[in-house]
């Protein structure tokens, strides 16, 4: 996870150096936090189309312990599969949001709680750390372009 955060910081530094555009960072952060809250409401609705709408068409997700899922159609199928289980639930809390100086890229770190039924039928609860990289679209909306979550270390 540390390496991913360093990678994100390098991308933001490069983008910031190439852009002369000044963005209202506080306004963009507030907008992104609002989008994140809307995303959680979409999950609560259990509507896969609404949930998938928060990822860009070319997004990639890296589920905990799974293989990469590329593109909105594949992500939508993944979400449909998860929501098909009445036991599935996910909640998250953003720990930080950082917006690039250009105002068109951002990343969010969060911690999640995911409840699901294992292939063996056991009800599982997983606490994860997550990073989402967001890109502002041409229409001004924010879409997730990379979404990764990994298990938190067990309590000591």
Characterize the structure shown.
- It is built from four helices and six strands, in the order αααββαββββ.
- The chain has 156 residues and is an alpha+beta fold.
- It has one domain (2-151): Nuclear Transport Factor 2, Chain: A (Roll).
- A six-stranded mixed beta sheet has the order 2-1-6-5-4-3, with helices on both faces.
- A hairpin with a 5-residue loop joins β4 (105-117) and β5 (123-136).
- The longest helix is centred in the first third of the chain and has 21 residues, at 25-45.
Structural class: alpha+beta
CATH class assignment: Alpha Beta
Helix content: 25-40%
Question: What is the number of helices?
Answer: 4
CATH topology: Nuclear Transport Factor 2, Chain: A
Specify the biggest β-sheet: 6 strands, mixed
Q: Strand sequence of the main sheet, in spatial order?
A: 2-1-6-5-4-3
- Overall 3D form: globular
Low-confidence sequence ranges:
14-19
Give the averaged pLDDT, no decimals. Answer: 89
Distance separating the two termini: 19 Å
What is the succession of H and E elements? Answer: HHHEEHEEEE
In oligomeric terms, what are we looking at?
single chain
Q: What is the tally of beta strands?
A: 6
CATH architecture: Roll
% residues in beta strands:
35-45%
**What number of structural domains do the residues give?**
1
State Rg: 16 Å
């Amino acid at each position: 996870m540390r390496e991913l955060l360093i990678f994100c910081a390098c991308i933001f530094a490069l983008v910031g150096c190439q852009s002369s555009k000044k963005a209202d960072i506080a306004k963009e952060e507030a907008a992104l936090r609002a989008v994140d809250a809307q995303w959680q409401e979409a999950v609560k609705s259990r509507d896969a189309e609404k949930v998938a709408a928060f990822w860009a068409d070319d997004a990639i997700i890296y589920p905990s312990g799974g293989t990469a899922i590329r593109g909105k159609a594949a992500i939508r199928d993944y979400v449909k599969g998860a929501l098909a289980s009445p036991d599935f639930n996910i909640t998250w809390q953003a720990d930080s949001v950082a917006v690039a100086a250009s105002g068109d890229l951002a990343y969010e770190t969060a911690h999640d709680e995911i409840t699901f039924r294992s292939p063996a039928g056991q009800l599982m609860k997983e606490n994860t750390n997550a990073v989402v990289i967001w890109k502002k679209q041409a229409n001004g909306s924010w879409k997730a372009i990379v979404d990764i979550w990994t298990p938190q270390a067990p309590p000591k």
